[in-house]
Each structure stands twice: as C-alpha cells, then as structure tokens.
Amino acid sequence: MDRRLQWKIKPTKLVVVIALAFSLPAYADKADKAKIAELEKKLEKSLAIIEQLSGRVAQLEGSSSASAKAVVASTEAKTKADEVAKVSAQTAQEQMVRLDQLEKNIINVSEVSAKKRELGLPLHGFADVGFVRTSKDIDNRKSGFALGNLDFYMTPEFGDRIKSLFELTFEFNEKGESVATDLERLQLGYTFSDELTLWAGRVHTPYGYWNTAFHHGAQLQPSILRPKMIAFEDQGGILPAHTVGMMASGATKVSGGRLEYDFIVGNGSRIVGEAGDMILDFNAGKDDNSNKAIGANVRYRFNGDLDGLTLGVNTLNQEVAQEGSINRTKFNMMGAFASIDSDNWEVIGEYYRFNNKDLSGNTGSHNSWAGFAHAGYRIGDALMPYVRYEKAVLDQTDLYFAALASGRSYNRQILGLRYNISPTSALKFEFGQTAEQRGTGEFKYNEARAQFSVRF
User: Fold this and answer.
1) Contacts of 453 by beta carbon, 8 Å cutoff, 6+ apart
2) CA–CA dist 225, 237 (Å, integer)
3) Which DSSP state fits 283?
4) Residues contacting residue 131 through CB under 8 Å, at least 6 positions apart
5) pLDDT tens digit string along 399-428?
6) Cα-flanking dihedrals φ and ψ of residue 366, to 5°?
7) How far apart are CA 211 and CA 337, in angstroms?
8) Which positions make up the signal peptide (predicted)?
9) Separation of alpha carbons 349 and 438, rounded Å
10) Residue 267 near residue 244, CB atoms below 8 Å
C-alpha cells in the first residue's frame, strides 16, 4: 500500500513542475503581472503539499520496515523456543526412562533380599585350631595340639530400630575334659537415634579398647592370646569381661572427630570355685547381692590428620562377694586407653588403676595397677609382625586379688607374626615369656604357639 502511494505522488509532482515551467513564459506575455503572482503563490502551495506528502510516505516506509524486522525477530525467537522445548522434552523423556530402570533395579534388589530372608537366618562363625609348646607344665597340661573355639555369630533383624546380637561358643574347658557350651553374648537393642541405642542382655563389659573391639572369634584378634589381665573370666581374667544388665551406647560428631560412649548397669560379679582355683563369675542368672555393677567408657575418635587415633577413659564399680566366705570387696577401677589403627600400624595401649576396699574386715583400701602395650606393623596385605608387653602389680593383701587364681603380679613379653592367607583366614606364630609372682618366689615359663583361624 505504501509503494502505490509513493508512485501516485512522485509522477504528479514531475508533471506539475514541467507544465508550469513551459506555460509561464507564454502566459506572461498575455496576462498581467497580477495573475503571474497569483500563479506563483499557487505553485508554492502545491510544492509545500507535495513535500508534506513525500515526508509522510518516508515515515510510512520506515514504520513498515520496523514492523517487518519485528516480525522476523519474533519468528526467529519462536523457532528457537520450539527447538529448546523439543530438546527439553527429549531430555525429560530420557530421564523418565532412567528413573523407571532405577525403580526396577531397586524392586529387584528388594525382592532378592526378601527371598534371602525367607530362606533363613544368615549364620556367621569362627573356628580355630592350634599348637602349644611350653618350657614347663602349666595346670598339669603337656605341650601339644589343641582345639580352639567354634563360635557362631548371628545378628537377626526385627525391624528398622530393633537390633540384636547372639554369640554361641563351643569349647573345651580349661582341663580339656569336656566340651562346654557358652552363650557369650545375647543382647537386644532399640535404636532411638545415632546418639542413643539401649541394649539389654549379656554384653561385653565396656572398658578399654580390646574387650569391645575383639570378641571370641580368633581370626579377628590381632594375636593368639589376649592380654592376661583382660582374659575371659573362665581363662583367668581379673576384670569381668561380660555383664548382664542394660547398656546405653551412642555417638555424636564433634569438632575434629567423633565422641562415643557406653554406660552400663548390671549384676555385680562374684568369685566362685575351689580354693586356689577361683575365678570371676558375672552372675548371669541373677545377682547375689543388691549392689549393681556401674561402668562407663567414653572415647574420642579423631578425624583429619589424626584419623585412626582413639583416646578414651573408663570406670567400673561394683561389690564383689566370695563364694563360701564372708569376704566382700568394694571393687573400684579407673582406666585410660589409646589405639592407633592406620594403614600400616595397629597400636593398643591400656592402663587400669584399682582402689579396692575391704568391706568384711579391717584391712582398709588397697591400690594395684595393670597395663599393656601392643604394636603391630602391616607389611602389604598379608604380613604383620607384632610385639606386646604386659605388666600387673597386684596387692596380695587385697581380698579380691588374693582369692583369684590369676590375681598375682606378673609380666609378659610376646613376639609374634600374623600371616593373612586370605581375607577370612589367618595363620599366627607367637613366642612369649611370662614371669608370675607365686608366694615369695617367681614362676617363669616360655611358650611357643601356632594357630590357624578362619571365619565364615
């Protein structure tokens, strides 16, 4: 429309100019000057009108060009938007396919796990056999081969928050006369949060590092023998390795590490057996007095540059009675420990301080102590040589230690080598020298041990 307007105006302007140019001279000859002046005025008006129309045409042409550009820009933007929408739709479709596949995988895993649970309770276990050579007969036993433990370990599930741990062991008694069955642990727990799990039943008494980190499975333990002072009750330990009662455990993250704790209340121990051969008993069936054992273990696990280092303190208090006697002792123990578990090093150190009070006589309070340091160095994935030093200074006027067959002062040095045949089996060799205080003399003996242990 704008171009047609332009075509009409421009030829008209040209015709008017030419016609006037040729007619004015002839007309001047015939007309008077007044008419010429009038015609000149009309010409000026016509030219002014023509200029106005020309300006309007130019304005219309500019508007038309801007409109055309806007239309083109809008079309291009729409095309790009359509392309983006197409790509987005394709990406969304691909994501939906991936989510569907992930959901199918999760369902398959859940179904497989459910089928496994339907097949029965997963059962894990430990077993070991060994050889012992001694320089002197100990407890009327000669050197030779020996069966270790057959240990079954179960952790059945009863829900998201309910935990359990059952450990049943078959072993020969100390005299090697018959197979004994021992329910080493039976504990049920309810988890309220990461900061609190409440346990009930038979648990490992929370003191030090070794007694809670390693249980009866020989393959897990870094050496063949446990430190003598923390041996299990029926093997001569001077501390109750087990407690029947309730225990609260938990952990929380703190700056630079993790703070962990265990608090326990349970049946107090008693001393049982024949004179000269008495051991600790932790009253699994019921307590023999109204006093309870109360203990705590608080430890801090470092992160960062000190990752692998754990420092802790512990305490245990209880009243202990001697079977067949009026002797009663207020047992008070406080201790501290440290452990390092790095790529190469396994180091454990524990110290115990005893301040026992005689409750049945007038011998007062008695101070004793015991401790050990164990260090192993890993060479690759298979070899780990290790050394350990143990020492106990136990007051023999203390009724508690005097009654126990193993409640005598001693020191022991051990040199050993562990070879991991596979991740689930280990072969260990151990050489040790022990010196015990017996009466006014000292009883020394050397031992060479070998052990093959597995877990399944």
Assistant:
1) 126, 127, 128, 148, 217, 218, 219, 425, 426, 428
2) 12
3) -
4) 144, 145, 146, 449, 450, 451
5) 999 999 999 999 999 999 999 999 999 999
6) -135, 135
7) 12
8) 1-28
9) 26
10) yes
**DSSP string of 288-307, one letter each residue:** SSSPEEEEEEEEEEE-GGGT
Cβ–Cβ under 8 Å, residues 126 and 220: yes
Q: List pLDDT tens digits, range 324-358.
A: 899 999 999 999 999 999 999 999 999 999 999 99
Average pLDDT, integer, range 27-41: 55
Q: Which residues pair with 129 in a beta bridge?
A: 147, 452
pLDDT for 45 equals 66
pLDDT score of 133 more than 70: yes
The predicted model gives 203-212 an average pLDDT of: 96
pLDDT at 113 over 80: no
Q: Residue 176 gets which letter from DSSP?
A: S
Burial-class residue 453 by CB neighbours within 10 Å (0-12, 13-18, 19+): buried
Residues 344 and 382: beta-carbon distance below 8 Å: no
Question: Is the separation of the CB atoms in 130 and 452 below 8 Å?
Answer: yes
DSSP secondary structure letters along 80-128:
HHHHHHHHHHHHHHHHHHHHHHHHHHHHHHHHHHHHHHHH----EEEEE
For residues 266 and 345, what is the distance between their CA atoms, to the nearest angstrom?
35
- Any idea how long the chain is? 456
How far apart are the C-alpha atoms of 61 and 55, rounded to whole Å?
10
Cα four-point dihedral sign 151, 316, 331, 392:
positive
pTM for this one? 0.73
Tell me the pLDDT band of 361, cut-offs 50, 70 and 90.
confident
Q: What is the pLDDT of residue 258?
A: 96
Question: Distances from the Cα of 217 to the Cαs of 222, 316, 367, 415, in angstroms?
Answer: 11, 25, 33, 21
Report how far residue 45's alpha carbon sits from residue 48's, in angstroms, rounded to the nearest whole number.
5
Higher pLDDT, 82 or 455: 455
